[in-house]
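Please annotate this fold before class:
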Amino acid sequence: MKIGVPGEIKNHENRVGITPSGVFELVKRNHTVYVQKDAGFKSGFFDDDYSDVGAIILDTIEEVYEAATMIVKVKEPIEKEYELIKPHHLLFTFFHFASSRTLTEAMLRSGSVCIAYETVEEEDGSLPLLIPMSEVAGRMSIQEGAKCLEKPVKGRGILLGGVPGVPPGKVLVLGGGVVGVQAAKMAAGLGAIVTIMDIDMKQLRYISDIMPKNVTTELSSEYNIRKHIKHTDLIIGGVLIKGAKAPKLITKDMLKDMRPGTVMVDVAVDQGGCFETTKATTHENPTYIIDDVVHYCVANMPGAVPYTSTLALTNVTLPYIVKIADAGWKKACEQDKRLAKGLNIVNGAIVYKEIAETFNLDFKTLNDL
């Protein structure tokens, strides 16, 4: 198969879709890999690293799309790429369709096959290709949130860990999944007082068992959220509903109950965000303020630590890339039901129910095509 790895052109997206190690595995299996010039540079991987293991370096993104059948990326295509995507293309990347009708309709028009990292699903319901980026984003949410609490960013002027004689800051984590657990772990490590909320009591029991004493668990409800936000310094939104928009757990009217300089970090922004006041931001301009509350809503947080993120992502995506390259997407999906769950759009039809429901569009099964 001819596999293309274009450079990412989303604002401050520094990751790359595959490492030289991944290219080595594909070339070893007699696949042809085209990598755009300098695609891996910001992640710490150079053109010579790719060419030394058999990749063909192409100068432009247009050349990569033209040469390849399968496109391996990190983030969803942006408007500049739409016209490059043709019916013969298979795209394997993060899409988060539920957050963008424009993207969904563009991919439907393209006639391509879209397999989304974030909906590849294990039998137990876990999302193996989303987990490493959720781990990175969860940990980064505390790192960035702590920075936003500083006065120059209009935060409350709070040091999360406090100092002897001064109490530490308070952190509220919404969601007890991968993002929430990693965020709580980082915040606890800094010495903050942490409350983590979820609606799954089984998960809360697990979290309670593994976390240190400065982390407490509480059942998530509007009443409990409203109670906590009055005294919380940093709020982390880490709620995910597979393939669908995140629920709005913090509404605009709640902001008036927060203290000026409170910081909210919405890790769910790729899925529309779990704060009503969320709007996607970039690493270049990461924050905005509404009602004296600082919002950090960067849609590609792991892009700020591209070396770590690229290695972590390729660790989990490469086995699936190899399967698709070896067998073609149809056979690979027939053989691996986890991968089949990743099918979102196929040749102009939505085949993932939650996306169709989000935009009130037609849904088809693979048998209908």
Observations:
- Residues 323 and 335 are 9 Å apart (CA to CA).
